[in-house]
Automatic annotation (TrEMBL):
Protein name: Ribonuclease Z
Molecular function GO labels: 3'-tRNA processing endoribonuclease activity
Family annotation (Pfam families): Anti-Pycsar_Apyc1
Species this protein is from: Selenomonas ruminantium
UniProt keyword Disulfide bond, yes or no: no
Lineage, broadest ranks: Bacteria, Bacillati, Bacillota, Negativicutes, Selenomonadales
């Protein structure tokens, strides 16, 4: 059984929840991590979920904003430390575009201990992916794509499993038609929804290049998506977010709606 484990659901400046990141647990027990939040809080989130680093050999990083990339340095440090103690077998692969690759190499060089940094490039491998590039992994075929961000370069991805399931991560900005082939008819679509439409004048999502629940839900309906996961939200309505966002989404989308809290587990 495949599972989507949500590590964080909040936007960059969230304090009531962790930054948006997650991992997939696959049928064979292997783990696939996406982004890592903005600091070493990622280590706690993973610890709470009983994350087994030895089962995670592949990771994807969408972009270089602080709330997505800084935690990756902590992942690199953790994996390097495990390797140096003989507690991690094999290599650890990180997939990202050229800007993120350069950032991670430089931050790792400046912040890691020499023996940990020695693992980068040998046992911890940073793979640059380009728009439309396909990567065949043991559990699925991954295709990376440029989401055409107007802020910082950002990639999403489509995963295609042997049984035909299509899982698409759109990153944390509004949909661009460039991504249609990867998002249309997806079994699972992960999309940002910064706030409810009625609160747009309060949170000003469009100024931040984000969308509301309404727009994300209309998109999923148009694309014929079966299951919609909404995250990367404001954190002022955490207590009622699941119910409120779900209610708004149902007005525009007729598939299955998931508005997870941090550490929620969704069977896919």
């Amino acid at each position: 059984m495949r599972k989507l484990v949500i590590l964080g659901t909040g936007f960059a400046m969230a304090t009531k929840c962790f930054n948006t990141c997650f991992f997939l647990e696959l049928e064979d027990g292997s783990l696939f991590l996406t982004d890592a939040g903005g600091g070493n809080g990622i280590l706690r989130q993973l610890e709470v979920t009983n994350f087994d680093y030895n089962k995670c050999h592949h990771m994807f990083v969408t972009h270089g904003h602080t709330d997505h990339v800084l935690g990756v340095v902590w992942i690199i440090r953790k994996v390097a430390d495990l390797m140096n103690k003989g507690k991690f077998e094999g290599q650890f692969h990180i997939y990202c575009h050229d800007v993120v690759k350069d950032m991670l190499e430089k931050m790792s060089a400046m912040t890691l201990k020499k023996k940990d940094f020695a693992r980068v490039g040998t046992d911890i491998l940073l793979h640059e992916v380009t728009d439309g590039q396909r990567v065949d992994l043991p559990q699925f075929c991954m295709t990376a794509f440029d989401i055409m961000s107007t802020k910082a370069k950002q990639f999403g991805y489509e995963l295609k499993f042997a049984d035909g399931l299509k899982f698409t991560c759109l990153g944390d900005e509004p949909y661009n038609e460039h991504a249609r082939q990867y998002a249309e008819k997806a079994d699972w679509l992960l999309a940002e929804a910064f706030c409810q439409y009625k609160d747009r004048d309060v949170f000003k999502p469009y100024e931040k290049n984000h969308s509301t629940v309404k727009e994300a839900s209309e998109l999923a309906e148009e694309l014929g998506v079966k299951n919609l996961v909404l995250y990367h939200t404001e954190d002022k309505h955490i207590a009622t977010r699941k119910a409120d966002y779900t209610a708004e989404a149902k007005e525009y989308y007729h598939g299955n709606i998931f508005v997870p809290d941090d550490l929620d587990v969704i069977e896919i």
